[in-house]
Amino acid sequence: MTTLAHHTTRTAGVDEILLAEMCAELFASLPRSDQRTKGAVYVRGLLRAEGRKSIRKLAAVSGGEVSEQGLHHFVSSSTWDWRPIRAALARYVTRTIPVHAWVVRPMITPKAGEHSVGVDRGFSAEAGQVLNAQYAVGVWAASDEGASPVNWRLHLPKPWLDDEDKRSRAAIPVGVAAESMAGCAVSACLETGGFWGLPVRPVVLDARSTEVGGTVRRLQAAGLPLFVRVSASQGLVLAQQALPGRVSGPVSAHQLMAEVRHLRRPVHVPGSRSGRHSAATVPVRLPGTGREGRELLLVGHWDGRGGPVGYWLTDITSASLSTLVGLSRLVAGVDDNFDRITDRTGIRDYVGRSYDGWHRHVTLASAAHAVAALSEVAFDRYAS
């Protein structure tokens, strides 16, 4: 196991020992030494090149060790499998830092043209406007110490999958089928939590614009604990005896939290400037599941500024209120890591057109993020 506090060789904010160690472990599945070299060069280039991470810049960082053409071929049209490398990255990260949850975060990559794999024009709720873009979801290993992406799923609209010419040009595998964005999120979680030998942790995701019931059922069927954000208008059914005298029909999350407002208890939120955080829970079921449906908790979180700042459904019924609110706070940590590290290490800079090329790039960019994030943790610990 890596002992982060022992890493003391640092260049431009990067722990060199950690970088070499991680690349050796991640690229062990590549059969040829030249492939392993190119993988390490690509990751190092993402960490060192300034501005947009073009292939030319990444090759230049290597000082002639790898040519621009060779690096382009390695990512866009080679045949190496990115899946074992991504799984190795996930195992490395979870072995190195404590993982409190798997946090799902969407990623939008605006595109000028129409040939990048999966690019589609449509309204983005996250951006609040119509965009021509690629849409993907990332699964992040998240803790109070930091966060790192370990898995990705690219959303492919039905027109891309129904058009044989587009499928052929992007080399989209035969088995890839159409999914909603919510379906992509759940599938990415099932892959991360079910097939890679990783620790079981709560899945934290935003389901406010999706069909909540289907998301909850798929996660529960896979045995993954869930902590799912829902809209204020989400209809829920009170569990029996939850609020004596209350009707049994569907009630909105907002109405339910208004009724239990007086039951709020203070919660500690590390790093918050406000000391007035509080939370309450009420047992509920999803509409249409009947009394046999699995009981969930609706969690409301207040920060002293009026109504609840969020409504969450969870099947983690034995955790403290502070622990549950802490799970919701991990989302902000992931967003901070994306803005501060992931985007700067070129996660959205791939300009190729192939499906596997996109997956290779985001896998290597995730490795670069992990090196940068873990270098921060290592030197913070060393300095203290």
From TrEMBL:
Source species, domain of life: Bacteria
Classification via InterPro entries: IS701-like (IPR039365), IS701-like_DDE_dom (IPR038721)
Domain Transposase IS701-like DDE as annotated: residue spans: 25-268
Protein name: ISXo8 transposase
Organism: Actinokineospora globicatena
Higher taxonomy: Bacteria, Bacillati, Actinomycetota, Actinomycetes, Pseudonocardiales
